[in-house]
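Dear Dr. H.,

I hope your travels went smoothly. While you were away I took the liberty of generating a structure for the chain from your last submission, since the lab meeting agenda had it listed for discussion. I wanted you to have the full record in hand beforehand rather than looking at slides cold. The sequence, exactly as received, is reproduced here:
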Amino acid sequence: MAPRVSRNLTDGDMANLIDRSDPVILELGSYDGHDGKRFLDLFLDCRLWAWEADPRNIGLCRRTLADTRASVLGQAIHHYDGVCPWYGSSGTPPDSYSGPPLPKANDWDQSSSIHAPTGHLDFSPWVTFPESRRSTVPCMRLDTWLESVEAFGDILVDFIWADLQGAEGDMVLGGVRTLSRTRYLYTESYATPMYDTQLTTAELSAVMRVLDFELVAHYPSENVLFRNKRF
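The corresponding predicted structure, in token form, is as follows:
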């Protein structure tokens, strides 16, 4: 298991890892697009594809990433193409919450998932998943995206930034070919599952080893960084 580092991934870390001005970056679970905007600001000739499935956030994400270098797909990442269940989150953040203001009061929209919550209900009991927020959303495999861009030539993905709320295993299952062409994967991961069928960090690391990735860092934000040893 990689050591837990004392700080999160910085812009400097990103620049050193990618080491080029024109990377291909995939952002899976873009929310409001603020991280995607960070990549566009950091890399002058970046090509960014961002996925966001929550209907509340797609429009905001597209406005934030209104850039000719970016494409926003209003779909969830899954291990199949089609339509999948959606467990929308809600709730009121505690007084200690210091993040950006919510677009709608008392409607937490950052924990929605294609999987039913399990450990999340105990981890953050103020986050709710009401019946009124349950629906379906379009979904796609990561390899379906790859097939769509292969017509324009071979592609190397320099970095995947994934915040998939429990769908990490689905990303891998539906993205084996894409991952084989990916240099780095940065994703949220927990020792205890937060959602139904979510892989633990140990399980995800074992799966990624099969794909020839090594775990190189574990951050205090419960994110992990994998490096493809083929590159």
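Two observations you may find useful: The mean pLDDT is 93. The first strand starts at residue 24 and ends at 28.

With kind regards,
E. W.
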